[in-house]
């Protein structure tokens, strides 16, 4: 990568971070973020600034998904903190991987135990800098083997279909296509 490319890449990183962190954030008892990206960076910064806490409720591993999207890989493929050093990628991709992985590593060890939806996510988050000993699993699904499909409600016929049947308009069950004046039925 040329020095110019490195400069513009670094400028992208820090201008995005500055845009998120430059404005003052109102004081709150708890800040909440859905992802470890810029949302969590904002939450961590606000919590540190005001001496409060931040809660991360990640339904998916944002860092992993962002890196996999960047590399045009399947989103369920695992990513670790050192992958940016070993993957065969361009210089720009390597820099973005390092940025996202290090930002995740910075944001994962927050004071509040992060809830996650699966044990696998805990393991993967641990490989990205999380603390698996503090994470909590909250399943976000249903066990299909223990449930029966719901019975659809018996809906009464609509007012329009009752009117059409009563007056014998085209399309009703009481009107044959031959008796329809427009013959379009």
Mean pLDDT: 77
Query: Biggest sheet, in brief?
Result: 2 strands, parallel
SSE pattern: HEHEHHHEHEH
**What is the approximate shape?**
elongated
Count of helical regions: 7
DSSP helix fraction: 40-55%
The counted number of beta strands is 4
Strand order of the largest sheet: 1-2
Which structural category do the helix and sheet elements fall into? mainly alpha
Distance between the termini: 68 Å
Poorly predicted runs are: 171-177, 179-185
Cα gyration radius (Å): 27 Å
Strand content: 5-15%
List keywords for this structure.
disordered C terminus, mainly alpha, 4 strands, 43% helix
Structural description of this entry:
The protein has 185 residues and is mainly alpha-helical. The chain has seven helices and four strands, in the order αβαβαααβαβα. The strands form two sheets. Strands 1-2 form a two-stranded parallel ribbon. Strand 3, helix 6 and strand 4 form a beta-alpha-beta unit. Helix 3 packs antiparallel against helix 5.
Brief overview, please?
With 185 residues, the protein is mainly alpha-helical.
What's the topology here?
Elements: H1 3-21, E1 30-33, H2 38-50, E2 53-56, H3 62-70, H4 83-86, H5 91-107, E3 115-116, H6 119-127, E4 136-137, H7 159-167
Parallel strand pairs: 1-2, 3-4
Helix pairs in contact: 1-2, 1-5, 3-5
């Amino acid at each position: 990568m040329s020095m110019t490319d490195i400069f513009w890449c670094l400028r992208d990183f820090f201008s995005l971070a500055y845009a998120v962190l430059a404005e003052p954030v109102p004081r709150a008892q708890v800040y909440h973020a859905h992802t470890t990206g810029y949302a969590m960076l904002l939450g961590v910064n606000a919590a540190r600034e005001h001496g409060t806490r931040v809660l991360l409720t990640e339904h998916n591993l944002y860092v992993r998904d962002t890196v996999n999207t960047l590399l045009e890989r399947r989103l369920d493929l695992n990513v670790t903190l050192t992958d940016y050093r070993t993957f065969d990628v361009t210089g720009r991709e390597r820099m973005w991987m390092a940025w996202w992985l290090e930002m995740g590593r910075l944001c994962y060890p927050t004071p509040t135990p992060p809830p996650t939806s699966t044990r696998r996510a805990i393991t993967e988050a641990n490989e990205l800098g999380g603390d698996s000993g503090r994470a909590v699993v909250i399943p976000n699904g249903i066990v299909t083997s223990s449930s029966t499909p719901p019975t659809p409600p018996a809906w009464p016929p609509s007012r329009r279909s009752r009117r059409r049947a009563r007056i014998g308009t085209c399309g009703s069950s009481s009107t044959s296509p031959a008796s329809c004046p427009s013959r379009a039925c």
